[in-house]
């Protein structure tokens, strides 16, 4: 089938769907429910080879053309004989299992029985779950590092191409630690964290602009967030700096490693939180009141109902949206509901804290391990305290941020530091969406290898976004949650035909996201990889 005929088929399916949607609002009263049922029979076709993971072929094509397969095979040497699999086969088998919604090693078994899935990857067979687990147990620490460097070796192609505009004038490298709990008792390397949770404490260094995970390091559960962080931050700087005009490091108070400030300041900028210690608090309290300025944060977004109605009206989708917009213009936006939590707190006499206002001020400060002084932004919060109907004395709390950024105002420094919290969304996606921060194996290193391989699925989502043809699509797909990426890009029913090295994916049904996806992918294939 030609590309032109494929586009015609997609347009025909769009018209069919639009015809059904055009009936909305024109129905009369129906005697029976819209959702009906009849006799259902399932048949197994003998001549069709189909899979529900039709998008995996485009993902594998991207991975192959970026050279990741060769990088993995050149960097990793875990198998003495390739009978029949290479190192890249094992790595991508685990990664694609995650990309296809797998949450455990056993889910690979369902893919091994999907011949259309294997044809889409150009494979006659893929490793079984037991073999995949054995492969992870072959890793030593140096092997995991080699795997991360092999993955990082393909990033410059993306950053130098269409992903370059995402790095922008300033690339932000964020670092944070998290806790990965486990109920297992025989996992070597596990330990109890500060909040009495047994498990591991991985360190995650990510690139905020593209939401890529640059380095993921597994550590025992009792490891502090900053343990060995300087080493991996240095590696991230070496990786990103050649491809970005400027680089800025961000982290919470645990990553204010003052012994490394002077060395980092010579290469990059940074914004770190600082502990509220006696020296900084004394300096802040000694400042004259004229040194403080009121902090004005961005106003919260307007009512979501009003936003949706206005957007629908702008698109001209239906008369209901126009009526809703007219009501909103007349001040008839849906009223805010009562704060039931606040009422319960007051009724039961719980201690209630409410922020009154915030002030910011700046001063220079030289940490004990530094040879120069740095700019410190002090944030002073005035908090009212009440218990029931009784008003208590207001409380003042101080927060401090140390930075090399002199091009930002004090308010902008606070905003920049708070934007690092978006890394928590990446960590949450790795935990719940991707399932990369799981510990299915028996020791720290093998689980580390699994985390890196599974996190590759998240990175591939970012790489796929960077290869989109339109800039707006790139940013939309970068921000997209992994579960939505799976449902939009991967979970596509398709018939697969494999002849020699040519693979044809024929979509079954119509998905509105496919027009933009595959037209962009075909353009990408011709212009970037042709």
Task: Explain what the structure shows.
With 530 residues, this protein is α+β, with helices and mostly antiparallel strands. Helices cover 43% and strands 17% of the residues. It is built from 22 helices and 16 strands. The chain has helices at 3-21, 56-65, 68-75, 87-99, 108-112, 115-120, 129-137, 141-152, 155-160, 164-167, 229-240, 261-265, 278-286, 304-315, 319-329, 340-348, 410-419, 423-433, 444-466, 471-479, 482-490, 512-527, and strands at 50-51, 171-177, 180-181, 191-192, 198-200, 203-207, 212-217, 247-251, 269-274, 293-294, 351-365, 374-387, 390-391, 395-403, 494-499, 502-507. Strand 12 and strand 13 form a beta hairpin. Helix 3 packs across helix 4 (87-99). It is globular and about 80 Å long. Residues 301-321 have low confidence and may be disordered.
Structure summary:
The protein has 530 residues and is an alpha+beta fold. The protein has helices at 3-21, 56-65, 68-75, 87-99, 108-112, 115-120, 129-137, 141-152, 155-160, 164-167, 229-240, 261-265, 278-286, 304-315, 319-329, 340-348, 410-419, 423-433, 444-466, 471-479, 482-490, 512-527; strands at residues 50-51, 171-177, 180-181, 191-192, 198-200, 203-207, 212-217, 247-251, 269-274, 293-294, 351-365, 374-387, 390-391, 395-403, 494-499, 502-507.
Overall geometry: globular
Number of strands: 16
Distance between the termini: 20 Å
Helix content: 40-55%
What is the percentage of strand-forming residues? 15-25%
